[in-house]
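sorry for the late reply, my laptop died twice this morning and i had to redo everyting from scratch. anyway the thing you sent over, i finally got around to it. pasting the sequence first so we're on the same page, its 689 residues, then the predicted structure underneath. double check i copied it right bc i was rushing
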Amino acid sequence: MQDFKHSNLPLLLSQLADAHHRQLLLITGSQAWCYTQCQQLLANSNDNLILSSSKTLENAVWPEHLHQILGQEFSNLVYDGFSGIVPNKIAAAAGTVKAGGLLLLLLPELDELDHWLDPAITRWCSEGQTPKHSYFLKRWQQLWQQQPAWHISEHFGVQLPSAYLAASSAVCGVEEQQNVLAQLSTTLENQQTPVLLSADRGRGKSALLGLLASKHPTQQFVICSRHFHALHSCFSMLAQAFNTEVDVKTKKLANLSYMAPDALLQQASTLDSNTVILVDEAAALPVPFLIQVAQLGFRCIFSSTLVGYEGNGRGYTLRFKRYLESHYPSYLDFTLSTPIRYASNDPLEQQIRDLFVLECKATSPILTSPTTMRAISQSELVENSPLLEQVFSLLVLAHYQTSVDDLRQLLDAPDLYLRGAFCNNELVGICLAVIEGGLASDLAEDILAGKRRPAGHLMAQQLTTSFGDSQFVTEKSARIVRIAVHPNVQQQGIGRRLLTSFETTLPEDISYIGTSFGLTASLLSFWSQRHYQPMKLGFKQDKASGEYAVLMLKKVRGDLDNSYTRVFKQAFFYQLRSHYQQLDTEVVTAILATLPFEHITNEQLDYLQYLRNSNPVEQQVCPFIWQLITTDPRLLKNLTKVSKALVIRLILQQHSTQVVLNLLGISGKKALTTTLRETVQQVYEYFRC
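ok and here's the structure:
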């Protein structure tokens, strides 16, 4: 056993503190040995956060939720890799380390990482899958071989530098923060234009929002974020300025109030027109939501982390900036680049970025030659770092909630399929899917009976419980997790060709292909044009986007059983009157266009002609049009915009007459009757043809 007691670690820690930097220290060996060395190292420190599920390490905690550790600071952080490598947890906890402190990472010896299976790897496995290796940890092994870290090893001894020489003199970002604060204050007083505030973690961005509110005590601020607990530093800074405490129950302090994203949109009309809207962690919210906020007419500041444990905000920056450039050309853009709590060029910050590919940046491709499609393996991603960065950057651009946990899923999830679109060897599109189903019949029956909910197989289990058919979990299917094309080359058919390439290269035992996404008319159209059918519409709206999740399915050979689509059709028409009563008319139209249809009878056509030639009242027209449109949903898309909205709001969603008049801007009941008769004429023209 090696003894590190006579190493120069105390000298290095003194030099690290002088530089206002933080560092990663690897402690590798057997689990018991690592625990012993860790306890010896921390013997004289009481300011530690120890993340471990083991009871051997004193005062250890293993929080399930990240907000339980955010907003705190510690001199040292211990992360017990023997409890499982959870990327989100490590990256979030790293932000709690004070200047001069260490992140102690406990692991087996580095030469064992390529075949070591940590306890957390099962998180990325579905029922029936057995992990054989971790490409994620193999990549870590390669990184530390190329760029050695501070290291104390049971078998290889102390591997520490003779001295720590900081890359540059300590620079603190307080002055930069104060400069941006002054500019923001001036902007609020003199301009109405939207403001972007961007920073990496540790730059004091959220605290700056609290300072801004404290500098304008008579001005009302509303701050919006996915999670209230993520605003700890913002409210703490305001509380400090006013010498008071935050009321967690009311989520309000002085002139600053918290609103969840969905509540902000719902209650915007009740806010004073002079209110300032602060959106923190904007990159964690969908761009359509941000656009809605910008359109509310308030002064808005959109603040976001560009690189953080949640993933990174480059996709948000690219798409939202494009919108602001076209609609608010005079918008302002501020960046905090210098850390507040530690000096610039911090080693730990860079190490976390390297370990979790947080600095991946999508290039700006130009299509100069035809695109080619090919499979990408997980082993290739580990050996080809530039390709891994390109793949992950596209996934980040495509979805606002991509996190560093997704990096581990990308590298370690068994039965994961990747297919890329390339132009001149540059990745421009990616399709990511997982294989589901193939479960034993006895397990399938337990799932059907509600006795079991095995890990994974999300789509297969949803379909089985929705339709009472166990074949969805016994037969194999492919669930497309994400398909992404670089924004610079979208609308050029790459996504369509990539999807076709993916579908035609799947294993022969795949019976179904499906996908799930936040429902919009354009996305529904994309998938329905490729013969995917909606099978299930969620009941809960995303709190940020307000979208319902829709599951769409396609049979690999032949057509889907009509009984499934009929069940969905009947349920959707029924729920339009209640649960989906506020669903957007464009979305309703798009869904109806995908539903199965039947031909109306001659008797129905005769009655329609009668209504057309008479002066029917609302009570005659509405039930009959409901009958016709549930028979042939294609009818709706053939109506004029006004008639389409009228049919949806009045007949399908069954809003009251007064609500419909207000929504459609119709002057009164007489005008409503006229519009209904015009609609009857359009319906007649459709069926007569």
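The chain has a mean pLDDT of 90.
thats about all i looked at so far, will dig more tmrw
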